[in-house]
Amino acid sequence: MNASTLSDREPGAKRESLASYILVPLLFVAAYFGARGGIENVTPRSAAALWLALLPVPFFALLIYGYVRAVRGMDELARRIQLEGLAFAFPIALLIVFTAGLLDLAGFHGKHDWDLPRLWPLMLLPYWGGIALAQRRYA
Amino acid sequence: MKNRLRVLRAERDWSQAELAERLGVSRQTVNAIETEKYDPSLPLAFAIARLFELRIEDVFQPESVSTRAQP
């Protein structure tokens, strides 16, 4: 690859990084909180409620696309660290969900304590923990 | 798997970052291979051997059976 090819590609790569790491996450957060706010103001089980509930999905799909592309661009050790982080995080996320469900069934809940919209940010913690553990293993 | 990467790199007076750049990997990857915390993929192992103009078995040596059997 020659220098002119590299310089030609750099602006496009920077734009893509900005979109993947800043614009798409911001759009997802806006869509998610917009949907949450909107759902409370429309008739439950209506077409509008359904559309609002599904509004964040395409933005999250873009997030997944960006993440997979980023992982494919990593070198082999970084890919392994991601894999080990996810291998740790996925079962822990399942554990959080089913434990919260059982706690809810057992009656240990306030009005909205264990509902999924409040739980999902917690699921990022095992991912970060898994990545940190894997990083430490190979440091 | 044992390897001579640190010695080979030192003989050429390359930093880990310099070797990483030549191989197209991160410095963390070079460090993890040198400290034998990570075994490289076959393509990377071949790339390392080619860079040092050696055979792959001159850079990487499998641990003996008796060593592998230990917990």
Please tell me about this protein's structure.
The complex is a heterodimer of chains A (139) and B (71). Chain A has 139 residues and is mostly helical. Chain A folds into 2 domains: 1-73; 75-139. Chain A is built from 6 helices and no strands. The mean pLDDT of chain B is 92. Chain B has a two-stranded antiparallel ribbon. The two termini of chain B are 15 Å apart. Chain B is mainly alpha-helical. Chain B contains 6 helices and 2 strands, in the order βαααααβα. The interface between A and B is small, with 8 and 12 residues.
Low-confidence stretches of chain B: none
Q: What is the typical, i.e. mean, pLDDT of chain B? A: 92
How far do the termini of chain B sit from each other?
A: 15 Å
Roughly what percent helix of chain A?
over 70%
- Could you describe the largest sheet of chain B, including whether it forms a barrel? 2 strands, antiparallel
Any idea of the CATH class of chain B?
Answer: Mainly Alpha
CATH architecture field of chain B: Orthogonal Bundle
For CATH, the homologous superfamily of chain B is named as: lambda repressor-like DNA-binding domains
Strand content of chain B: 5-15%
Main pleated-sheet profile of chain A: none
SSE pattern of chain B: EHHHHHEH
Mean pLDDT of chain A: 85
Report the principal-axis shape of chain B.
Answer: globular
Summarize the structure.
The complex is a heterodimer of chains A (139) and B (71). In chain A, 80% of the residues lie in helices and 0% in strands.
Q: What are the defining features of this structure?
A:
heterodimer, A: mainly alpha, disordered N terminus, B: 71 residues, 434 Repressor (Amino-terminal Domain), two-stranded antiparallel ribbon
